[in-house]
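WARN  no MSA supplied for this record, continuing single-sequence
INFO  ligand: zinc ion
INFO  echoing inputs
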Amino acid sequence: MALEHFFRRSRPKQQAGNDLPDLWTKCPACKETIYNKDLDANSWVCPKCGHHLRLDAQQRMDVLLDPGSFEQLSGRVFPSDPLDFVDTETYPERLERAQAKTGRPEAILTGRGQIEGVPVMVAAMDFAFSGGSMGSVVGEEIARAAEAAAAADLPLVLVAASGGARMQESALSLMQMAKTTVALEGLHAKGLPYISVLSDPTTGGVTASFATIADVIIAEPGALIGFAGPRVIQQTIRQSLPEGFQRSEFLLEHGMLDDVVDRREQRAYLARLLRLLKPSARQQGGEQ
Amino acid sequence: MALEHFFRRSRPKQQAGNDLPDLWTKCPACKETIYNKDLDANSWVCPKCGHHLRLDAQQRMDVLLDPGSFEQLSGRVFPSDPLDFVDTETYPERLERAQAKTGRPEAILTGRGQIEGVPVMVAAMDFAFSGGSMGSVVGEEIARAAEAAAAADLPLVLVAASGGARMQESALSLMQMAKTTVALEGLHAKGLPYISVLSDPTTGGVTASFATIADVIIAEPGALIGFAGPRVIQQTIRQSLPEGFQRSEFLLEHGMLDDVVDRREQRAYLARLLRLLKPSARQQGGEQ
Amino acid sequence: MSGMSDLLRDLEHKVRDLEQTARKTGQNLETALAPLREEVAKLRRAEDDRQTGRQAPEKAGGERWERVGLARHPERPTALDYVERLTEDFTQLHGDRLYGDDPALLGGPAVWQGIPVMLLLQQKGRDTKTKIKRRFGMSNPEGYRKAMRLMDLADKFGLPVVALIDTPGAYPGIEAEERGQGWAIAESIQRMSRLKVPAVCAVLSEGGSGGALAIGVGNRVLIMENAWYSVISPEACASIIWKDAAQAPAAAEALKLTAPDLLELGIVEEVIPEPAGGAHLDKDAAAQALGEAVSRHLRELSSLRAEELLAGRAERFRAMGVFEER
Amino acid sequence: MSGMSDLLRDLEHKVRDLEQTARKTGQNLETALAPLREEVAKLRRAEDDRQTGRQAPEKAGGERWERVGLARHPERPTALDYVERLTEDFTQLHGDRLYGDDPALLGGPAVWQGIPVMLLLQQKGRDTKTKIKRRFGMSNPEGYRKAMRLMDLADKFGLPVVALIDTPGAYPGIEAEERGQGWAIAESIQRMSRLKVPAVCAVLSEGGSGGALAIGVGNRVLIMENAWYSVISPEACASIIWKDAAQAPAAAEALKLTAPDLLELGIVEEVIPEPAGGAHLDKDAAAQALGEAVSRHLRELSSLRAEELLAGRAERFRAMGVFEER
Ligand SMILES: [Zn+2]
Ligand SMILES: [Zn+2]
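INFO  complex generated
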């Protein structure tokens, strides 16, 4: 729904057309040029202005999990082209480009790992892959991660980053909203925590399905989160949008989020929360 | 909570101080003087302006149920004075006056009856008795009616008319909100319909308990319905209240009611609804 | 065709009226005006094309775009047109008991061709006035929250749910976002997946994205022959991919959003045939076909226990999607 | 006592500030201003009384009115004062996922003296600024709806609920009524009665009517020695019955709203002793007593199964009330 203004926006880091050498990144918020090593040491939060730069799925795992604890679950499921979708190029061509760019079969990475010693199942969407859009594979991998979590008695932590549904799979893509939802039922039945982390941006069909039915929903500061994209809304109402509209802080105020948590504090926050919600995890957890 | 402006308001019908002979009633809305027989034939809805006059509990049963079908359930439970409550007079004195005025031990009448042939358990609050305020007896009678309905596999129709809780029973009165709520669980467990009819006025603790957790909530036109009384709100916000504030139509618009139903159509409405919600009642019901 | 220019004049008049009212009263009627202005613009383009003899875009498109045109035909029966023909005693229950009563998503108990059901339906409006009132079938969160409340009642009373889907999509507005449009849709999908009673859904005309799926999690999902159901409207898809909404016919082809497409993809169980030329040419016949199909599926599901219904619905949607495993 | 006139000056200054802000920005701050103005008026009366040597109304009342005074003492510990002393890892979860985040009713998981719980608490604010922000502990419907959401989580994760009650009542405002204040309280009472986990409630200072009962449907209900719990505040009762709010001391006597009264009436299981002179004189000791009592009841309930907890809670409240049967 809200893809249009993401496709044209360049990613902050190491993007084609970026005239800075690969060692440096220009913060899209304060425009300062920052040494990547410093950004990396700061969880890719701008040390000058606190802006949370977008992460790809692997970076997300690095930031979220205890070092070396990640074991990948996904990766054997590949997208196909059930609709023979052709627009200005074919869907397979688009997919190949996204795969080459990200080195990943689809816009999702799942696996298990630990957060301050608490074992979790984890899924991270990859906005770098076709705007994190959800097609059959993203839906399937999320469903499998949820089922694997339930089977292994693990909580699920899911980091959303998506412009919405994958147009090129039309109704099949739409159905992923229901598929992921029913796959999450196993966690509910076993009383296992499901925590959703909304990152910039989370819109469209992802906001309207698995990302917002979690037990606890937190967001990164300043993330754009909504169902309809700001451009669509502006076209409909022909008024300018209020300051901060659809940003994390706005949603917190409107009762939609449990909290807005700085990325650098997310591991501590999630570990604490998981121990609180699943008291048995208190024993498993480390000292922190 | 919201009793203060009811206690001083005179009832429209056959009230002490009314200078009309008992055969006539002055409509409190349009001020027309109307022959009681005509009002009675019109379910005590003003034939001139449609205003729904307040009913006492017996009138309510007459209007709601098939003629001759009412069998009283309540009446053996009498109020006492557990707090030795004394203000300008004692609580027992107040009670005696209300009992003498209404010919009823308390502000509630319950029983079973039929609505267009559909058997129901029914409870009607009596605003004429101390502003329909809810003390231990009202709570007990409602709880018993709910339990009797569940025991007899009957739906419950409850007509609210109350200024709120009975101050003279303090915390005991407050607890009736929880008592009535837990007593309604049996209906829920057996899948039996509970329909609430809000009449003028329904405020305070009644609005904040059994009256608003029904499966279907309808209201009479123009009824005042709210938690806090208009006077209390006005004192707090020091602004005039919007037109129609806390009236049935306002609440319908704000999503709080299933519908606003004219008193003269309530029997047909309720009979239809009960047959729809409890298909087995379709067989029991008459031809209408 | 002169019917269309009448409608255009009507609409333009109404828009001017509303604009005046807004100016006079200081009311903000933009929410109502915006979709109306769009409608006017669309009709005006069609009218211009007709007068200049230019080929209408409908003609430029293939069979799929023609069907989209039929699905949006001004005389197309609305959900309430079907309900009037197929049900008795429909008792509309209003409100979400939280914030408001959505005018685009209606519901309540009814008797569907003799079968007691809980009805949910999306209503677009039948004339300018009701179209505006019903926001052209686009719900705010209140609509989905009302639907959930009615699903609770359906479960309590053991009434099967019949959901009649007809929406261009959920309403894209500031207030809708403020009150959690995404949250409401997600919760409605979840709530519907948990129904212990049978649920039969039918896409009547337009099945626009999450706003449609919110009440589309049925044990069976049916679709009228000339309806479409898609993750995005052809126009929005065209403006994203081709940067040109006029490429909607091409987008419609690419999206494979028609009833036969969806049957082939396994998204729906059955395509309900329409009278030749479209449902608007014989509303009674169209209703008859819808009624029969829904009733048949209700009867088939009626013998299943709650666990079977739950499991069947979960499996149905769990299996959705096409991918390769390597 | 000079502390009180300092507070008065502070408050008056704050009110003027807010009034100026309101005028300058055109914001409507009446909702925040109204309770503040009341506070000012109350303090001013007390101050006047003190300066003129007139006997303060507190003195005119009996023991019950004195306790009401203690319950409202400006230095009285708030819910968060107790939480800070008694819990670890309190993680506040915000929002009702429907409309907003109520600032007066807070909650989230925490560890209560070593026991994992779901905490619900009503927070009045500790200084002028936070008092205004938290609306003096008076919730809008969002507060009760957040509480229900957290009860869902408590049930899912098997966490016992600890509810710390401290509110003059639910907020009486236009918006609260528009969004169903009565509905929210009723549903919260019902939701709490359905908890499958143990629930222990404690009235800390003020238990004002339905706004308190909304999170007061516990298996055990405790009360601090100098707290009150009543269907109506003494002031409101006085202004209805005596047509004079100054008769509040008499109303307090009549209402029998103190902890010992409630114990005798069977409304509470236990009165938690406070340090001599009131909880404000030794917050640590007060917290210790509260913590110990709540923990003890949690431990006692921990061995019960869900059905026993449900039945026990239902029976507890079903039995409430005093009447004669003839
Ligand atoms: Zn920066
Ligand atoms: Zn009249």
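Residues A 27, 29-30, 32, 46, 48-49, 51 surround zinc ion (ligand 1) (CB under 6 Å).
INFO  checksum written, moving to next record
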